[in-house]
């Protein structure tokens, strides 16, 4: 079932690609269309393509993004005045499709054996159907709006997936073991609080560097969380893991590397300072980090 969700996602990306190739108002339609075409193929045929071919495709995506071959075009969307008029009529009904995605995902993951990713895919499809019914729009309009949004985000749309893969590679390369050795050299034995601080702060700092808490989790938890906090000090693995990931999210709030969280919103909101979102999140992030350290030290051991 999950493979079908991936293939559906790939088909959507192919539709975006073909629309882009035909969009003569996009001065970079070839590069943009090729980017979404390659990305879509990885979703549709990922299980069948040899790993080295997928690697070449990833390099091609990187070249297209880094070379500035991506741009925006004409999406045939409604004007702001029309949107405001429609919004004044529909009012809070507009939030129903948005609410279906998280509610449907949680419900499917909790009450079926399909899992969260399949739940997300099915809930997203249901959300689109409900949105079309509420707004009385045509499916093609939804497709055009989807292309507009993903073009606005650009290459950053796939950054989290890239960084998660990078975290896996770091873990396979033994970076976690190296981190554990460094921590043991720097921190005296039997100092639980210092080890908790090192783990939570390490999750935050590594996430700032990599831009993805999942990537940091694989490395820091392997290097500090499991060998030191769980095995050596006998901590509760569930509490340590949850608070460790939450500490990583504190780093997500503070880094431009998490472009889909911090840079993309600034671009979509047309803020003058592209780092304004990060500046507003640094203090709350540090407060949450301190809270995580307190809770972990107090209740995980």
TrEMBL record:
<keyword id="KW-1133">Transmembrane helix</keyword>
<feature type="transmembrane region" description="Helical">
    <location>
        <begin position="117"/>
        <end position="137"/>
    </location>
</feature>
<feature type="transmembrane region" description="Helical">
    <location>
        <begin position="214"/>
        <end position="231"/>
    </location>
</feature>
<feature type="transmembrane region" description="Helical">
    <location>
        <begin position="282"/>
        <end position="300"/>
    </location>
</feature>
<dbReference type="Pfam" id="PF06166">
    <property type="entry name" value="DUF979"/>
</dbReference>
<keyword id="KW-0472">Membrane</keyword>
<feature type="transmembrane region" description="Helical">
    <location>
        <begin position="190"/>
        <end position="209"/>
    </location>
</feature>
<feature type="transmembrane region" description="Helical">
    <location>
        <begin position="34"/>
        <end position="50"/>
    </location>
</feature>
<protein>
    <recommendedName>
        <fullName>Permease</fullName>
    </recommendedName>
</protein>
<feature type="transmembrane region" description="Helical">
    <location>
        <begin position="149"/>
        <end position="170"/>
    </location>
</feature>
<feature type="transmembrane region" description="Helical">
    <location>
        <begin position="56"/>
        <end position="73"/>
    </location>
</feature>
<feature type="transmembrane region" description="Helical">
    <location>
        <begin position="237"/>
        <end position="261"/>
    </location>
</feature>
<dbReference type="InterPro" id="IPR009323">
    <property type="entry name" value="DUF979"/>
</dbReference>
<keyword id="KW-0812">Transmembrane</keyword>
């Amino acid at each position: 079932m999950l493979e079908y969700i991936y293939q559906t996602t790939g088909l959507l990306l192919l539709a975006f690609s073909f629309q882009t190739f035909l969009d003569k108002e996009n001065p970079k339609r070839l590069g943009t269309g090729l980017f979404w075409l390659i990305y879509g193929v990885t979703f549709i045929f990922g299980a069948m393509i040899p790993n080295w071919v997928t690697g070449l495709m990833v390099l091609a995506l990187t070249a297209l993004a880094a070379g500035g071959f991506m741009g925006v075009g004409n999406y045939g969307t409604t004007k702001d005045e029309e949107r405001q008029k429609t919004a004044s009529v529909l009012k809070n009904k507009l939030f129903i499709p948005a609410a279906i995605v998280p509610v449907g995902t949680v419900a499917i993951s909790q009450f079926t054996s399909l899992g969260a990713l399949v739940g997300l895919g099915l809930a997203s499809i249901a959300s689109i159907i409900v949105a079309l019914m509420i707004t009385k729009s045509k499916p093609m309009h939804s497709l055009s709006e989807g292309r507009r949004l993903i073009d606005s985000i650009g290459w950053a749309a796939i950054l989290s997936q890239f960084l998660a893969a990078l975290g896996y590679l770091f873990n396979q390369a033994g970076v976690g073991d190296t981190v554990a050795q460094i921590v043991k050299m720097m921190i005296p034995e039997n100092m639980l609080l210092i080890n908790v601080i090192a783990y939570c702060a390490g999750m935050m700092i590594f996430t700032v560097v990599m831009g993805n808490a999942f990537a940091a989790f694989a490395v820091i938890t392997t290097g500090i969380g499991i060998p030191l906090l769980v095995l050596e000090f006998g901590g509760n693995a569930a509490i340590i893991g949850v608070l460790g990931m939450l500490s990583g999210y504190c780093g997500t709030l503070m880094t431009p590397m998490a472009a889909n969280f911090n840079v993309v919103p600034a671009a979509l909101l047309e803020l003058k300072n592209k780092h304004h979102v990060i500046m507003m999140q640094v203090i709350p992030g540090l407060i949450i980090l301190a809270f995580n350290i307190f809770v972990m030290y107090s209740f995980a051991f």
